[in-house]
Specification:
alpha+beta; 7 domains; Alpha-Beta Plaits; elongated; hydrolase; about 35% helix; metal ion binding; DNA binding; metal-binding; five-stranded mixed beta sheet; 35 strands
Amino acid sequence: MCVDYRALNKITVADKYPIPNIDELLDELYGASIFSKIDLRSGYYQIRVNPSDIEKTAFRTHSGHYEFKVMPFGLTNTPSTFQSAMNDLFRPFLRQFVLVFFDDILVYSDTMDHHIQHLRTVLNSLLTHQFLAKASKCCFGQNRVLFLGHMVSKEGVQVDQDKVSAVESWPVPKNVREVRGFLGLTGYYRRFVKHYGIIARPLTMLTKKDGFKWGESASLAFETLKKALLSAPVLRLPDFSQPFVVECDASSEGVGAILIQEGHPVAYFSKGFSTNNKLKSAYDRELLALVLAVQKWHHYLMGRHFFIKTDHYTLKFLLEQRVTTVEQQRLLLKLMPYDFSILHKSGKENRGADALSRRPSTAHLCTLVLPNSVLFDDVIAGLQEDAYTRTILQKLSHDPSSVPNFSLVNSLLLYKGRVVIPDVPAIRQSILHEGHNSPIAGHGGFLKTYRRISLQFFWPFLKQDVRSHVQQCLTCQQQKYETLSPAGLLQPLPIPQRIWEDISLDFIVGLPISNRFDTILVVVDRLSKYSHFLPLSHPFTAKSVAALFVKEIVRLHGFPRSIVSDRDTIFLSHFWQELFRLGHTSLKMSTSYHPQTDGQTEVVNRCLEAYLRCFAHEQPSKWSFFLAWAEYSYNTGLHSSAHTTPFNVVYGRDPPPLYPYVFGNTQNEELEQQLLTRDDMLQVLRSNLQKAQDRMKSQADQKRRDLSFEVGDAVVLRIQPYRQRSLSKKRCEKLSPRFFGPYFITKKVGKVAYELALPADSRVHPVFHVSLLKPAKGPIPTSPIPPLPITRDWQMDLQPAQVLAHRWQHANGHSTLELLILWATRPHEEATWEDYDLLAAQYPYFRLEDKSFFREGSIDTIPKPIQVYSRKNKAGRLNDGSKLINLEYLDLLYGACFDPFHPLREAVGFYGISGAENKEITD
């Protein structure tokens, strides 16, 4: 009788008494040859309920109300209480000659005499504590006995044939519940079935939510499991005085392992891989198989020395290798508590574990993709050509012990399982190229490349060859970032002797329009740090900037002795240079693409931008109203390097306060005293600036490295990021080269700048700071080096070279002509589709009317009306009066567009072509 005690169980504190593991119980039977089994009669009913708890067991029936005086089925703590009572009863003899699993008691002995003594002890204990056995279920003095669903004998453990025979006629499951029932029976005996996890995987997948779809793979797994159980082997009982051997293997499908003693299997283990594990490398899968097998048989292996056999040769040196990934470190850490040795066993010898891991068989991932048959033929042929390998082969044939790490397999010379490559440059270069330059290798760094190659190949000085190959790879030199500190020690500019004699200039651009202005010209005195912020509006020219400079700077401070600036087109113009030549002003330009030369103005720019952000962030179009106050704030603020304010340096006094102030009696100072004080202040200022400059250089040089070149050295040049002049579609800068070249150095300019021999058609200043250069390694290409794809103002120099194709894009009733443009100095794969109108406006000198692509083919679409519009207005809307025209009249339009004297040119407005005035189409 079983009562529903779910309500009572909910409020009962569970007793977590450990229940014995069946596999561990069976392992205790090694060496036993005589067995007796005792089954208790209604075992739960032989334990009394505590009188105070009897009322809790009450239940109702049609004949009345009842309570249990003995322990009933259905209570949550019934199994734990009974197992605890049995363990207490036989505690002195447990796992010495008696095993207990609830009401099943097994007595085992090595001889009959010992067995009689053991039986008498067990029966006396039952009698003393008044436990009754059921005679019909007991057997005594047997050579083999059925215990817990397993047939136990001197030979070992095997499955219960009575239960397994029912599997032979098991019907095909029709739903998830029936699949789970079948897996429940077969899973109980999984330790007897080779590759159980792999075989049962299709059936296991059916138990997932909405996954029941019986197919061919499920039928094959169903029949294979039935046959495996019917032919299950006898497993040897473990002898803990003998060492264990774990044979393991892994494939892309899963892991398989066998626990062996003296050549006989003790247990089988297999498990299918998850999707993530299937994607791992062969090395990682084999390591995972090893760890899973050791963890599975933890109770056999912990505290004992055992052996692991694997067909993956590199795992033999697992404890000597450098672990390279976090995953490998985690797996290796799990093996640390165990005492083991790893042995290599070839795949042919490791068939048992190999069969467990694959069904039927799958190939391992190759680290390098090489034409192995051709490669290995060349390697075998080259072994006799290399003196080193020829000597090893001779020693192997006469005295193999003299070269213990070498072996000869299928005519290939191996060193610790890796193929030895002879000194044949073509073969080694092929391996280096595949291990570094191939898409699989991905131009990895030195360590990654060396690791990839050294797993399979070996030759003397392999590490040096890999390092040299990686360093000389031109692709890596051009495309990769440098992880070194910036090159070139800091070279401070000379300290000026007088205020407003040496100044620096720069523009702040990209500002929102504010009161017509969108640019700021920043002018800084390099001695006093006094600054002027002059607003400008686009478009401005060298003439307009020079006029503003004379009006606002020269008017107040005169012509300076020198001006430091970047290489902006304004400052490089003939007008600007001629103006200051006449004013006896020396123009000092920064080296190409190195704005740090004008570091003073860059710092002021940051201060000014920060000020404007603070006060104009809510109304960006009002920044011009704060510009005067920004200038006042900067000039009256304390400068850390000068220890005073720029205002005080220039005017010799603090600025007048902007709030009411009562002057004291000392306000009338003598002019001479004021001038003397000012001269003293300038002297102190120069001293402070020199100290600050020295301190700045010392700090900056700590993060820099000294790098120098000689005339004639080859270098590659870093030009990234650069500004880009593009059409409607932006070009991708992320994938643009980081370095260009190599180029040769023709001249050393100062201590940290060099002049390069750029191609003749390059339109950029050839002097560059050393931080933009790095040595070019390896052979220098003999093919002509293309020009730098930039202009002198550091914009992307995109010049159309050829029209490859054309097409019409139709969207929202509009048709747009697009051309496939091949850009000068760019490869064909970087050709882009560009809007015809934008292209004609951007490159008016690119004679589209001379191109023949318009008349080479026809339009393959059905003629449909398209809209030809007048010019857009400022708001981006089309003017009214547009007309519809059919595609069949396009030839007439082409004639009007490309013939300047065509009569339709005045009648048809075609936006963006030849500058013709746009008009509406007339009737």
